[in-house]
Amino acid sequence: MSTPSQVTLYDTTLRDGSQGEGIHFSLADKLRIAQRLDTFGMHYIEGGWPGSNEKDVEFFREAKKLKFKHAKLAAFGSTRRANTPVEKDAQVAMLLDAGTPVITLVCKTSMLHVTEILRTTPEENLAMIRDTISYLVAQGREVIFDGEHTFDGYKLDPAYTTACYQTADEAGASYLVMCDTNGGSLPAEIAEITKELLPQVKKGKLGIHTHDDCGLAVANALASIEAGSLQVQGTVNGYGERTGNCNLITTIANLQLKLKQRVLSDEKLAELRDLSLFVDEVANQRPSGRAPFVGASAFAHKGGIHVNAVNKLSASYEHIRPELVGNSQRVLVGELAGRANIMLKARTLGLKLEEKSPEALKVLDEVKRLENQGYEYEAADASFELLVRKSLDQYKPFFELVEYHVSIRKNSAHGFDACEATIKLNVNGEKVYTVAEGDGPVNALDAALRTALIRFYPKLADMNLVDYKVRIIDSKSGTAAKTRVFIESSDGDTTWATVGVSYDIIEASWLALRDSVDFLLSREVSENQKAIHGKYGNSLNGI
Fold first, then answer.
1. pLDDT of 106-133, one tens digit each?
2. Closest Cα partner for 421 from 401, 442, 395?
3. Which letter, b or e, does each residue of 134-149 get, where b requires 16 or more Cβ atoms within 10 Å of its Cβ?
4. Phi then psi for 26, rounded to 5 degrees?
5. How far is CA 176 from the centre of its chain?
6. Which CATH architecture has domain 8-264?
7. Would 280 disulfide with which of 184, 269, 285, 286, CB 3.0-4.6 Å?
8. Sequence spans of domains, the chain
9. Contact indicator for 284, 26 with CB cutoff of 8 Å
10. CA dist., res. 115 & res. 125, Å (int)
11. What's the pTM?
């Protein structure tokens, strides 16, 4: 087992991350995320700025009741105001009242910001740094120094920026963090300045805090770590102001798997994807499918040559084993697919399909034919599974559509509108006719179909529509364009997705809805057969 790294992880999702556009955390959200970060193994969790708003005040009040098993909770604030004794500074008092073991101070380290933004003298700024840190350390707090605009300031006046770090170090800060606040530096610059500041710090340790304005936040953080920094600050999924902060999810994976910095146990590293998804869910954000390491597409293969290769040797097109970060390999099917795609995709669905078999070629030809019509199966596994089952003669229709009719009535004068669907089916040799109303035409059609089938297939009572998406395939055709409909359904335990394509949006919706019902019923039959086979062994062979 490798030796644990000296590098510490500092999460600022709850403060810096919440400054990102579209990110809003309730008090309950912040408490849940803090507990999850602690369980995951973060070393430091920054809770917010006490006194900046009532929610953060309440957060620290509630956080005192929590027991953090691994992480140290940090309150964030600034140095004392200019020309104000630190003992009389109300903001510093609020930091102490938060009751956290760690206080992180943002401090000016750029001469430009000292004179033009803070509007004080360089000497007074150094006194503000020294007085505030030494005062808080004397109160028994660990203090982390966040040097704002470190790299821009160093490029402008290296002597003054260095003096800020020396002052903070002498005052007792445990970590002296270099911040690329504007996110405009390059990895080579970050590494060079880190190496130049490193010998100036005698007691504390250097840290790095980067922003992603040039798309280099993770690269810059790693460059600083390689140059000698021992703390990396960032946010889960890279949330943050403007284009975001250093993405800790990506950084952790690179630290541990590429730089061999053992910042977490292997078991915790395998929870990386779950952590990413958890925070996205709490923040009400759609997970990025292309996120490195943890995205749904991170280990997804579509090209026939690629799929053929990973079938023989996963490492041929995968830089790590997906399970190391809690992810998994995915095989996509589409117009670029080969028979290997079809075989491997079928295998992941529990279906036996030989690569060189006529069935595999038949499925491949059908996929390409349908994709040429506008179908996509990458996000519609259930429709793809039904397609394979039909090719293998493993599909039994549960009902036959005779006809359906959907009508919409609207009365503008009385503000009245209603949708009604009628459907005629053959179910097990019995003709069924039902009528249902709905909030829209698809909802009405769904209700009519369920009403018709529920007495034959009670399992449908558990099925709910989770998501419904419409895509226009050829926008140049205007209202005559084809429509692709994706439907995601759930029975409370699992979810599945289906697709339908037509010039008629109602028909496209019907095709996706029909597949959704068929998939649920097919799966129930398959599970029942497995249960019977498991009970009676091979005694049912030939029946």
1. 999 999 999 998 899 999 999 999 999 9
2. 442
3. bbbbeeebbbbbbbbb
4. -80, 175
5. 30
6. Alpha-Beta Barrel (3.20)
7. 285
8. 8-264
9. no
10. 9
11. 0.72
